[in-house]
Amino acid sequence: MEARMNYAKAAPGAMRAMNGLETYLANCGLEPELQDLVKLRASQINGCAYCVDMHSLDLRARGETEQRLFALSVWRETPFFTERERAALLWTEKLTLISLDHVPDEVYEQVRPHFSDEELANLTLVIATINAWNRFGISFRDVPGRYTPAKQQ
Predict the structure, then answer these.
(1) Consecutive 10-residue averages of pLDDT for the chain (153 residues)
(2) What CATH fold (topology level) applies to the domain 31-139?
(3) Could you tell me how far CA 5 lies from the centroid of its own chain?
(4) Coil, strand or helix: which one is 111?
């Protein structure tokens, strides 16, 4: 497998904009582990192999268990996730598949108690950003297996 093109080289301004979003999100107050969990779930739904590889490695580097990683795609049927994580995963699925039902009121009401206004806005940006990255990765066939997570502190 090889990439179709180097989109970072082709559109450096677009990558600066995307990286600007990532910089904001890294400092927005949402737990990095929660962000990576959401990024992995959206990437699974979208079928972005590069991002699935990246975010599973990032989660492992943060100390995430294999059990939770393996169960992420069936999170509803497991006891492994907190209520806040479950709310974030539900929000992730609904926003990633937004054309299906446009995020019904009952979903919003389920998610709302777990996040402040600012947190929910930032969570929505995390989901929107990973969906954008997935579109780059899938469209231009980013090759998984080359990513190395940063050392966690």
Answers:
(1) 94 98 98 98 98 98 97 98 98 98 98 98 98 98 94 64
(2) AhpD-like (1.20.1290)
(3) 23
(4) helix
